[in-house]
Structure formats: C-alpha cells, structure tokens
Amino acid sequence: MNVTETKLPGVRLLEPRRFGDERGFFSESWNRKTFLDHGIDMDFVQDNHSLSATVGTVRGLHFQSPPHAQAKLVRCGRGRLFDVAVDIRKGSPTFGQWVGYELSFENGLQLLIPAGFLHGFITREPDTEIIYKCSDYYAPDCDGAVRFDDPDLGIDWGLSGDPVLSEKDANAPLMADFDSPFTYGDTA
Q1: Quick check: 71 and 113 in contact, CB under 8 A?
Q2: Cα(39)–Cα(86) distance, rounded to whole angstroms?
Q3: Tens digits of per-residue pLDDT, 90-137?
Q4: pTM for the full model?
Q5: Half-sphere exposure of residue 5: CA atoms within 13 angstroms, side-chain side
Q6: Residues involved in catalysis
Q7: Among 14, 150, 156, which residue's Cα sits nearest to residue 72?
C-alpha cells in the first residue's frame, strides 16, 4: 500500500495495491498490520455505505464531536467523487485549511481523515457509492456540520449547477459561527 502524507498532518492518501488478472482484481482496502507498519494505529468499529443518485450531490461538511469523535477511512465503491477534509482543531497551524482528492472505483484511492477534521464530498458521476470505516459509533447527539460553500474555506467543489443537498447541510452554520469542539494536540 502506498501512503502519502497531505499538507494537513494526519490526513493521508492511500493507494492499496490491486492484483489483477482476466477475472478482474483483488485489493486489500484495510489491514491492521499494514496500517501499523505505516504508523497508523487506528481501529474501526463501523462501516458505512451510501449511494448518491445524482451528479452534484454534496454531503457534508460533517464531523462527530467528542466523546464520540470519528476518524474515517473513505473510498469510492462505484462512480467518482471529490472528497474533502478540513482541519477544525483550534490552535492547529493548518486550522481552516482543506485538501481534496478525486476518489473513484477506477483509481482505488482512499482518504484517511482523523478526528478533528470536517469531511464532505461531491459526486461527479450518477449512482456514486461511498464506503467508509469509522473509528467510533454514530452518536446523533455528537453529530455536526459546517456549510460546504463557506467562502472563508474557499473549497473549489467544481460545481456546474445547483448542488443536491440535505436540509441539514443547506442549513449548516458557517465557520465564523462555529465553535469547534476540537483542540490541536488532543486528536491525531
């Protein structure tokens, strides 16, 4: 597995090896020992899988606060999406900065997003599936969001029309109105 550090410490782009033949391919998307060999000591307790039918569907920017903060290991099972992580750890030298990568079935890339970061994505193809592991269970009382199109964040989503949004995401607060529950040094 190739592991690349991003400009946001802790956020990593992963490229699992694919072993192919005339039948297709085999790939190991997560292996505890391989992760430990790369200095990633993280256990996952929940797998999530969602389908977005329409191109331009935006989900995020989401987080789960302590005591149920979640790290995520994200990949695309079908289609293509642009996946984003934003540092929201108070006192972090990269607070408010973001990285984004195209994840697709074809490229097989995965994004590892530690706790203390917002996560969101936009679909680039119809019927795009996202599959991700979480390091803690979903806790509705710890669920939160920040506006995906906050001008202070300046994320280039590559939108070519109006996004498809949930009511929760459409009404999420801006960063200026958001008090992050994360502090630099308290999370990975």
Answers
A1: yes
A2: 22
A3: 999 999 999 999 999 999 999 999 999 999 999 999 999 999 999 999
A4: 0.93
A5: 7
A6: 62, 132
A7: 14
